[in-house]
From TrEMBL:
Stored Gene3D superfamilies: Hydantoin permease
UniProt xrefs under InterPro entries: CodB (IPR030191)
Keyword list, A-Z: Membrane, Transmembrane, Transmembrane helix
UniProt GO molecular function: cytosine transmembrane transporter activity
Superkingdom per UniProt: Bacteria
Segments traversing the membrane: 63-87, 107-131, 151-171, 178-198, 229-249, 270-291, 303-325, 346-366, 372-393, 413-431, 437-455
Protein name, UniProt field: Pedicted L-rhamnose permease, NCS1 Family
GO cellular component terms given for this protein: plasma membrane
Gene source species: Cyclobacterium amurskyense
């Protein structure tokens, strides 16, 4: 009983400054962000996304060049968009949005945001579960699976989800510390695993790697039933797979702790270790799995890593899933908690963790991860454009920033109209012109900027 009380007291003492700027004595240096980004982006998603590029028939040259340019654009977006605003305001995305858009819009946005984050965290819990289930000879999900296919899978997911939720409940400090411990080890396992299996793919020396890569790993030919990915798919996916975090401004909640905006460049540790090296490494592992399993439909990161390098690979999958799910649950908890500041963040995170764990039981989250990641970034993108314009442009145009707070209103219609018009525009591009979801974010951002400026002029003039 005493231990339980002590735990609750510790959780109640966690202060994430949800409704106020971060105090100067709580700001963090480069080390915290280098570890957090490396841990979050060298993570469970990499064991899924890398293989999916193989399944979608990316060629070797398209993969390398697309990832290089796309990741550079992502780092620039984090630094020049998100980090600058985070250091300028020192508040969470949700609190800033409430001042701009009003409580009614923020309530809707937070529910949508938290739900999307829960699904992403759930997919990572599922990734970890594929490794935890190996010793029990648990049937693994197939490429075509949407629903859980056995009770062992559900029990394993709930065990992994409980640990993930507990870490997230202790706030940013624990999330950051966990990432700093796990990240260096994980990236070494990714690299070592890929190097270890290259001889089994026919690579005899450094000079033969590229020819094997083109003929055996990234052949340019998609698997049956999968669409074809080219250079532009890869570039825009690498740039926009974390659109919700940088262009969508979700990482204001993390980067508000930064001492200076240049720490936004620490995202490079995540994208180049995770979204470049780790995607390439996991693609190598999956191509070997396809060859040795003779085209098996099993799509489970745990067995793929275990088949390549044994227990170290399986353990890496478990930790990798946690390092993505932990900060994602943290963000989801903040989104829900901002609806009612009197709620304790750790209690909200506990509830969110339960919802996330239930979602993780459905393997379809993992099988459709590329499309889901692109979709959730697209949905949150218009609000990022609104925040950017509100912070940097509105007052220069003679308009009021933080309009909802200034006028004391519950709903700023300029923001609501911007969100609705932008997403409708993107939907029409997809339905009428057949533009794939991966490419909609860029034109959508400029439409959001234009609509918000016009709507603000009309609204504030009235």
């Amino acid at each position: 009983m005493e231990k339980s009380k002590s735990l609750v007291d510790r959780l109640n003492a966690v202060n994430e400054y949800e409704q106020q700027p971060i105090p100067s004595n709580k700001l963090k240096g480069w080390r915290s962000f280098l570890g957090t980004y490396a841990g979050e982006h060298t993570a469970g998603t990499e064991f899924v996304i890398g293989p999916l590029f193989v399944a979608h028939g990316a060629s070797a040259i398209d993969l390398v060049t697309g990832l290089l340019l796309g990741n550079i654009l992502a780092v620039l977006s984090w630094a020049f968009l998100t980090a600058k605003i985070a250091v300028k305001t020192r508040v969470t995305l949700y609190y800033l949005l409430e001042k701009i858009a009003g409580k009614k819009f923020t309530l809707l946005y937070n529910l949508v945001n938290a739900g999307l984050f829960c699904f992403l965290a759930g997919s990572m819990i599922a990734v970890s579960a594929t490794a935890v289930g190996i010793p029990f000879d648990m049937p693994m999900p197939q490429l075509t699976d949407i629903y859980p296919n056995n009770i062992g899978w559900v029990l394993t997911v709930f065990g992994v989800g409980a640990i993930t939720t507990l870490i997230a409940m202790f706030g940013f400090d624990q999330v950051s510390k966990f990432a700093m411990v796990a990240a260096p080890w994980m990236i070494m396992v990714f690299i070592a695993a890929a190097l270890a299996v290259l001889p089994r793919l026919g690579v005899t020396d450094a000079g033969s790697f590229w020819s094997v890569a083109e003929s055996t790993i990234w052949t340019g030919v998609p698997l049956e039933g999968q669409s074809k990915f080219g250079f532009w798919h890869i570039l825009f996916f690498a740039w926009f797979c974390n659109m919700a975090m940088h262009i969508g401004m979700a990482d204001l909640s993390l980067l508000r702790y930064a001492k200076k905006w240049e720490q936004g460049f620490s995202s490079a540790t995540g994208v180049f270790l995770g979204h470049f090296i780790a995607w390439i490494a996991s693609g190598i592992l999956y191509s070997l799995f396809l060859i040795e399993s003779k085209g098996s439909l099993t799509f489970a990161p745990g067995p793929i890593a275990y088949g390549a390098v044994g227990a170290a690979g399986a353990i890496c999958v478990v930790i990798a899933g946690w390092t993505t799910a932990n900060p994602t649950l943290y963000r989801a908890g903040l989104a829900i908690q901002s609806i009612n500041p009197k709620w304790k963040t750790w209690k909200v995170t506990l509830f969110v963790g339960l919802f996330t764990t239930i979602a993780a039981c459905f393997p379809g989250l993992v099988m459709r991860l590329l499309e889901f990641v692109a979709l959730y970034g697209l949905i949150l993108m218009p609000v990022g454009a609104v925040i950017f314009i509100d912070v940097y442009l509105l007052e220069k145009l003679g308009l009021k920033s933080n309009y909802a707070a200034v006028k004391g209103i519950q709903l700023n219609w300029s923001v609501a109209i911007t969100w609705l018009v932008t997403l409708t525009f993107c939907l029409l591009l997809n339905l009428l012109l057949g533009i794939e979801i991966f490419f909609l974010g860029l034109p959508g951002w400029f439409v959001a900027v234009l609509v918000y400026v016009i709507a603000s002029k009309l609204n504030q003039k009235k």
